[in-house]
Amino acid sequence: MNEVNPSFSIKEWSENDRPREKLIVKGKNALSDAELMAILIGSGNREESAVDLSKRILASVDHKINKLCKLSVKQLMSFKGIGEAKAIAIVAGLELGRRRNRDVAIESKITSSKDAYQIFNKYIGDLDHEEFWVLYLNNSNKVLQQKQISIGGKTGTLVDPKIVFRFALEYGASHLIIGHNHPSGVIKPSESDKKLTQKLKLAGESLDIKVLDHLIIGEKSYFSFADESLM
User: Fold this and answer.
1) Long-range contacts made by residues 42-50, C-beta under 8 angstroms, separation at least 24?
2) Quick one: CA torsion of 17, 18, 23, 27, rounded to 10 degrees?
3) Range list for CATH 3.40.140.10 in the chain
4) Global pTM?
5) pLDDT one-digit tens code per residue, 23-38
6) From edge to edge, which strands make up the β-sheet containing 131-137?
7) The architecture CATH gives domain 105-224
8) Quick one: average pLDDT of 87-111?
9) Which residues 6+ apart lie within 8 Å of 43 measured at CB?
10) What is the pLDDT of residue 128?
11) Other Cβ atoms closer than 10 A to 7
12) Taking CA 201 as the corner, what is the angle to CA 204 and CA 123, rounded to the nearest 5 degrees?
């Protein structure tokens, strides 16, 4: 009979090496990415501990959390030891991490296109489909709210100006900055992007709400209509 390797079970590790206990004793910052993921999935498989399994999953995405966020439930389930429940736990945990940035953005002051990009990028920079978002600002260009307006496919998303400005009036916004992502990574605006920008700009003028900029977001770069004098 083969001897079972004791490292396969976290319960058999020393307490200092157990991710849950380590978090309690040393704090969350003491844990590696793999240890944090191991807490989410709870257990590994017959050949790997939860930490080893987590390391293998992270290695498949070059240890980059942004790439991990792109994996679907089905893709995560391709790893031995990851069933539907564990895959959902990973996806949910990553989504909570993404959403915590929403509160951080409120009251941020926009002084440049880079400021707006940094906010948009947290939400849509690593997506595999297009989404359209708006930053609603007060007279001092502080963020009152950021709002997802529409979700589309890999090559486009529909935007209803009535919805954009309904929220502007609801939040009491004086200015707004619009943004959407290009999953392809190509940040050059299309003709439809240019037409939508002008359409929203004109609609805003009739309501005395200024559209300051339109950003096209790539994972590592962006295009600003204002910076390129297209507003």
Assistant:
1) 42/86, 42/89, 43/10, 43/81, 44/8, 44/81, 45/80, 45/81, 46/8, 47/8, 47/80, 48/8, 48/80, 48/81, 49/7, 49/8, 49/9, 49/10, 49/13, 50/10, 50/19
2) -10
3) 105-224
4) 0.65
5) 888 888 888 999 999 9
6) 143-151, 131-137, 175-181, 210-217, 222-224
7) 3-Layer(aba) Sandwich (3.40)
8) 80
9) 10, 50, 81
10) 84
11) 13
12) 95
pLDDT confidence bin for 102, thresholds 50/70/90: low
Residue 66 in tokens:
């942004």
76 Cβ contact partners less than 8 Å away, ≥ 6 residues apart: 57, 82, 86, 87, 90, 91
Helix/strand/coil percent split, the chain, to 5: 45, 15, 35
- Measured distance CA(55)–CA(53) in Å, rounded: 5
- DSSP of 191-225, one letter per residue? HHHHHHHHHHHHHHHHTT-EEEEEEEE-SS-EEET
Please write the tens of the pLDDT for every residue from 184-229. 889 999 999 999 999 999 999 999 999 999 999 997 899 999 999 9
Answer yes or no: is pLDDT of 106 > 80: no
Q: pLDDT tens digits for 23-80?
A: 888 888 888 999 999 999 998 888 888 999 999 999 999 998 878 988 999 999 999 9
SS3 172: coil
Helical pair 33-41 and 50-60, crossing angle rounded to 10 deg? 120
